[in-house]
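Lab notes, practical 5.
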Amino acid sequence: MQIEVLKSKIHCAHVTEANLNYMGSITIDEDLMDAANLIAGERVYIVNNNNGERFDTYIIRGERGSGCICLNGAAARKVQVGDIVIIMSYAQMDFEEAKHWKPTVVFPDTNNKVVK
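Output from the prediction step:
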């Protein structure tokens, strides 16, 4: 049996931009992507702590070290600059493997820099 479990999470990042006129997606600072074990094109689920919105999209690589968390396209309507979001990805794996799985969780600072 395969089940879906949390693979990666960026916990409480601050939205830096909302670009309604882009095709869609979320742009994430490449440093955060690396720390959270995320790749460009990967599906992510986003929870907005400020308004309760929940939605999914895919990742676009953002400039390394920029702290960028930008919601693009229709997703831009679900956030305001400064909102706090949780970004999560999931993976499918065997039930027994999942019992021992440890997701990657990143806690960025208020400037979306990776905290070691």
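Observations recorded by the TA: Helices lie at 30-36, 95-98. The domain at 2-91 is CATH 2.40.40.20 (Barwin-like endoglucanases).
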